[in-house]
């Protein structure tokens, strides 16, 4: 096809949102790249082309100038405008159907990263009972938070440039250190605290720092599937470990996977079963890690919420050999969109962890960290924890009472003394997946226990079928209405 015909066929959309010169520029660029207009070909003069296309000369000049600036065209006054002679020759595919571009293969590490979260279900759609692991956003003092953030946007412009550390804002690390000592018995200094973009980033960094490809890692099953993904992406050999009434079965793991280099555990409140690791198991796990020179990653994701007594001391508080890495998140006690978490690491690990965090994310968001530091220092954080603990306790009681009143004999409740969710098992032969589908159609949101199971786990990790019901994000009346709907789903 002659260059005159190619240009005459330019699909210019008059009156559209894209300027005409940008449309002409794109048409010419595509024709040059796919070889329909070859290198060194002379283009029509601007006056001729504006007449051909019925556009202003300014439109043609702007398109030509942009293409010259990017190296597609060259020329001089009095000589004309040419396609650059230095461009590689492209083979024109005239009158041929577009050929789909084949995806270049990812590396094995890339495949693991891209597929690691495939089994993780993300919250979508409007909030409805009984969405799991969701804090009550109706209880958060957003007006106070907005004022704290606004103050830093107004008065902290000098600190909005690049920082010099991946560890996070020093003031926030100091305040978190004091809070964790008082509430969880965590033994640390501010230098051991590294601020991360939520616990997910913390687990990703730790998996890559602490494990070589092929190293074995103990992971609870059933357990939080988002925690499995970072270890898979790091090339670790994931070893599913059963959970019983005392928490992770350390003896089973030690006998089955004796060469493990790391154990990921949730001692204070296990998701999804809700159990708390016994002191006997905690000491057994610590002795194993000390003996094997292995790491323990303690995920303490919602430890603020215990309804039958004060929060339990962390596993880290019992560590005497420097093997426990403590991971926490603000998503459950504040709001998930904040995307702030933290790691308390042994001092020798804290420096490498901060540098690794800087590698993937340079530094955390200053304003969010500074606002959180103020939120803690001014007492808002402690008041919010007290308020939500009381409200969640009432919501938990509403759920337990409604289940007892309407579904006793159909559902059996698991431990309910902590957390944001309640695990329930079927007393009959209900199919958990079918129940979840019917519930979704009826307008409530359920998670099955099977969702939390590692697909490669053996018979030792099997648990009775059941559901996980979130209660913290819903008022008592919403919870009672949700249980009525669940009764209709189960009983008919």
Structure, explained:
With about 500 residues, this protein is α/β, with parallel strands linked by helices. The chain has 3 domains: about 80 residues, Winged helix-like DNA-binding domain superfamily/Winged helix DNA-binding domain (Arc Repressor Mutant, subunit A, Orthogonal Bundle); about 220 residues, Aspartate Aminotransferase, domain 2; about 110 residues, Aspartate Aminotransferase, domain 1 (Alpha-Beta Complex). The chain is built from 16 helices and 16 strands. The strands form 4 sheets. The protein has a 7-stranded mixed β-sheet with strand order 4-12-11-10-9-5-6, sandwiched between helices. A hairpin with a 2-residue loop joins β7 and β8. α2 packs across α4 and α8 runs parallel beside α9. It is elongated and about 90 Å long. The model has no long low-confidence stretch (mean pLDDT about 90).
Helix and strand layout, with pairings?
Blueprint: H1 3-8, H2 20-33, E1 42-43, H3 46-53, H4 57-69, E2 73-76, E3 80-83, H5 108-115, H6 142-155, H7 170-184, E4 193-196, H8 198-210, E5 216-220, H9 225-233, E6 237-241, E7 243-244, E8 247-248, H10 250-256, E9 262-265, H11 279-292, E10 295-299, E11 324-329, E12 341-344, H12 347-361, H13 366-377, H14 380-407, E13 411-413, E14 421-426, H15 432-442, E15 447-448, E16 466-470, H16 476-491
Parallel strand pairs: 5-6, 5-9, 9-10, 10-11
Antiparallel strand pairs: 1-3, 2-3, 4-12, 7-8, 11-12, 13-14, 14-16, 15-16
């Amino acid at each position: 096809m002659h260059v005159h015909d190619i240009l005459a066929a330019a699909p210019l959309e008059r009156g559209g949102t894209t300027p005409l010169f940008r449309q002409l520029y794109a048409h010419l660029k595509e024709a040059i790249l796919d070889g329909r207009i070859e290198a060194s070909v002379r283009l029509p003069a601007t006056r001729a082309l504006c007449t051909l296309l019925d556009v202003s000369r300014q439109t043609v000049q702007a398109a030509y100038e942009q293409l010259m600036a990017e190296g597609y065209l060259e020329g001089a006054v009095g000589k004309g405008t040419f396609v650059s002679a230095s461009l590689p020759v492209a083979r024109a595919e005239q009158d041929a159907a577009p050929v789909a571009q084949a995806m270049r293969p990812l590396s094995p590490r890339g495949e693991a990263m891209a597929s690691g979260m495939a089994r993780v279900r993300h919250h979508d759609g409007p909030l409805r009972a009984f969405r799991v692991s969701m804090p009550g956003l109706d209880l958060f003092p957003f007006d106070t938070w907005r004022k704290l953030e606004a103050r830093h946007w107004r008065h902290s412009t000098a600190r909005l440039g690049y920082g010099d550390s991946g560890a996070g804002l020093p003031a926030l690390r100091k305040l978190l250190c004091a809070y964790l000592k008082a509430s969880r018995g965590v033994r640390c200094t501010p230098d051991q605290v590294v601020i991360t973009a939520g616990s997910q980033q913390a687990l990703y960094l730790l998996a890559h720092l602490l494990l070589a490809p092929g190293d074995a890692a103990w992971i609870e099953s059933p357990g939080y599937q988002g925690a499995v993904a970072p270890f898979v992406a790091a090339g670790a050999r994931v070893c599913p470990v059963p959970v019983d009434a005392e928490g992770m079965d350390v003896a089973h793991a030690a006998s089955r996977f004796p060469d493990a280099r790391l154990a990921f555990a949730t001692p204070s409140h296990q998701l999804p079963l809700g159990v708390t690791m016994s002191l006997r198991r905690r000491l057994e796990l610590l002795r194993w890690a000390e003996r094997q020179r292995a790491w323990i990653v303690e995920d303490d994701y919602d430890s603020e919420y215990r309804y039958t007594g004060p929060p339990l001391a962390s596993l880290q508080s019992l560590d005497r050999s420097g093997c426990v890495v403590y991971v926490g998140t603000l998503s459950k006690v504040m709001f998930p969109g904040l995307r702030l978490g933290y790691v308390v690491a042994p001092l020798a690990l804290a420096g490498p962890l901060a540098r690794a965090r800087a590698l993937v994310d340079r530094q955390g968001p200053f304003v969010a960290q500074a606002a959180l530091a103020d939120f803690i220092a001014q007492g808002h954080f402690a008041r919010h924890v007290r308020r939500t603990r009381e409200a969640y306790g009432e919501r938990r009681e509403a759920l337990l009472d409604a289940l007892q009143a309407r579904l006793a004999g159909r559902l059996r409740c698991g431990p309910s003394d902590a957390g944001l969710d309640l695990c329930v098992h079927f007393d009959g032969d209900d199919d958990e997946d079918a129940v979840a589908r019917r519930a979704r159609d009826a307008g409530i949101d359920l998670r099955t226990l099977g969702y939390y199971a590692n697909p490669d786990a053996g018979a030792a990790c099997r648990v009775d079928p059941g559901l996980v019901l979130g209660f913290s994000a819903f008022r008592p009346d919403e919870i009672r209405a949700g249980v009525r709907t669940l009764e209709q789903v189960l009983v008919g």
